[in-house]
């Protein structure tokens, strides 16, 4: 089941290209709604360093911190990166709770991963008064994080496809915090009337999603995916 989730019939998140200016970004999106940015950066060099072979060669023996794939991500487990890639990086089990699923995203040791992040070209836009922090992750098909919210940020897909679901701060989605996004899309999503559907879109490599402060969002990796977020705190 994990490998058979389709893309959405129609992307409902607005798109913008490299012609988007910083002033227009602040005016139209920064504080009000998400946007998918295409062609604003070129991360071909970073992508070349993120193949399975290159990452294992550079970081295989280093420990990585895995989080549970639920809304609060409260449980942390440290394993060698090679063990994660070779034994834990697999499709999401549809019957498994998010609180029982381990996922590599976000808890990066910047002393060890810093040399890789130096090659990443972040989106060119910032929110005044914030500073960026990177969150790098790798996950199997059907995995993801159920609905949660935090400060604003960008998320870019390096390999694979990642489907996003978003609600504005005043529209709390119906979900269970320990249910995986895969289970939510199979059981809850089909019952939603059109007016209660989230904004949604599938990101492909090189595309960047911007989400404003306190917007609810859930993610679903349609393939084995490599991704990096730039949180603005």
UniProtKB/TrEMBL annotation:
- Residues in the signal sequence: none
Query: Which residues does the UniProt record annotate as the domain JmjC?
Result: 99-233
Q: Which GO terms describe its molecular function?
A: cis-regulatory region sequence-specific DNA binding
Q: Which residues form a coiled coil?
A: none
Alphabetized InterPro entries for the sequence: Cupin_8 (IPR041667), JmjC_dom (IPR003347), JMJD6_ArgDemeth/LysHydrox (IPR050910)
Specify one Pfam family.
Cupin_8
Provide the Gene Ontology terms for cellular component: nucleus
PANTHER family (alphabetical): ARGININE DEMETHYLASE AND LYSYL-HYDROXYLASE JMJD, JMJC DOMAIN-CONTAINING PROTEIN 8
Tell me the protein's name.
Answer: JMJD8 protein
């Amino acid at each position: 089941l994990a490998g058979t989730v389709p893309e959405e019939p129609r992307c409902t998140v607005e798109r913008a290209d490299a012609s988007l200016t910083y002033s227009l970004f602040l005016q139209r999106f920064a504080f009000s709604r998400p946007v998918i940015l295409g062609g604003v950066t070129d991360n071909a060099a970073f992508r070349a360093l993120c193949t399975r072979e290159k990452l294992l060669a550079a970081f295989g023996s280093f420990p990585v911190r895995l989080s549970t794939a639920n809304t609060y991500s409260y449980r942390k487990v440290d394993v060698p990166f090679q063990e994660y890639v070779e034994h834990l990086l697999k499709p999401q089990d549809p019957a498994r709770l998010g609180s029982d699923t381990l996922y590599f995203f976000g808890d990066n040791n910047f002393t060890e991963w810093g040399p890789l992040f130096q090659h990443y070209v972040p989106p060119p836009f910032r929110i005044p008064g914030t500073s960026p922090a990177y969150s790098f992750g790798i996950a199997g098909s059907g995995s993801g994080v159920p609905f949660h919210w935090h400060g604003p940020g960008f998320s870019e897909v390096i390999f694979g496809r990642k489907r996003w679901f978003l609600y504005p701060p005043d529209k709390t989605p119906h979900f269970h915090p320990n249910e995986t996004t895969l289970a939510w899309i199979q059981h809850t999503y089909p019952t939603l009337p059109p007016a209660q559907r989230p904004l949604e879109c599938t990101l492909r490599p090189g595309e960047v999603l911007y989400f404003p402060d306190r917007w609810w969002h859930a993610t679903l990796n349609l393939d084995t995916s490599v991704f990096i977020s730039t949180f603005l705190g």
